[in-house]
Amino acid sequence: MNSKRILIFFPHNLSEIKTGVHRRFTELVKYFVSRNFSIELLTLKNYEDFWPEHLPLKFLPEFENIYFYDHSKGLKHTFIRPLQFYELVLTNYFSGLRSYKLPDYSFPGLKRLLQNILKSKTYQYVLISYIQWAHLIDQKLPCNPKTIITIEDLLSINTSENKKTSGVRQNSIEEEIKRINLFNYALCISKSEMELIEDRMEKTKLYYFPVFLAGQTQNKKVIHKYDILFVGSNNKSNQRAFKWFYENVFPQLRNDLRILFVGTIVDSIPPKESFKKIRHIDDISEIYSSASVIINPMTDGTGMKVKLIEALAYGKPVISTSKGVSGLSKAVIEQLIVTDEPSGFADWIHKLIDDDELYMKFCNISIEIFQTNFSTETAYKVLDNIFMFAD
Hints:
By secondary structure, this protein is α/β, with parallel strands linked by helices. The chain has two domains: about 5-210 and about 375-385, 3-Layer(aba) Sandwich (Rossmann fold), CATH 3.40.50; about 225-375, 3-Layer(aba) Sandwich (Rossmann fold), CATH 3.40.50.2000. It has 14 helices and 13 strands. The protein has helices spanning about 20-35, 55-60, 70-80, 85-95, 110-120, 165-180, 190-195, 235-250, 285-290, 305-315, 330-335, 340-355, 355-375, 375-385; strands at about 5-10, 40-45, 65-70, 125-130, 145-150, 185-190, 205-210, 225-230, 260, 275-280, 290-295, 320, 335-340. The two termini are about 15 Å apart.
């Protein structure tokens, strides 16, 4: 029997696991491999990641073919630049506008490339990542494949909470809903965001599809090299998270605690005797095995944080702010340690480090949450409903 064929559009270099989204899509590709799909990738050059020459098929053997489009040429030909969302909101506000078009990078050249790829053979599915490329499928597609979009965050929600921008923000939500309605299916990382839009879907079937990972739990108390671990890339949200922790929580911690920072966020971390910084590591399991407590002190942002799910996968206690658990179900949030008070944040760190019984209690809670909600087995059941059992 012939295998099913899927074309995945993902704008980043999947051989570099730099962010949570990279990791999420890597796990998604593993699912298609496990179900014997023929997998092809459409991706971008000159977007955010560098693709070394001859890298793709050598380091990404899961893909039968990899196709590239030069994003910089698309930008040049359409005379736009990739503005940040807040820039566009402010521009509209101060110019007196109350309408807004979300960024659209579905350039004519990229659409033509997609058409040519789909004409070359029969594809049963086309999966698009990010709402900025949703209009790739607003044309008649050869072979009439089922179309899927992944929603990491609702772009229109992930903006300033300033009430002055509410009119622009509402219009952008409407635009985002229109784009989602172009697809047969949508995989939503956030439970709350899915509930926000589900009544507005015309034909699109929504699936709650949170971050999932293979379990790596360590159900025992061990001697750790570090007391606290913060993992993150050097984006603005993580920078603000560190600033809040450093200015409000860190001064209340004991001087003997050892804190490890991992990821490009280290570029924004000042030198301190108690700080250890690792910019890149090949085996993330070594990092989680070496630390006692994982912190997630986010102050903004939407969607589910992969770093949180990673901590649960390794059976580690997590201390988070309320923003750090956005996207999770209420039932899961109620089992986690969540506090927005700096003193409470510091107290929980000390309690978990000093009290072995309490520590093991929350290790077991993390394991249970992960296995019930975010394991590979749980996620594969959701995906099978689309790719194996759907008409």
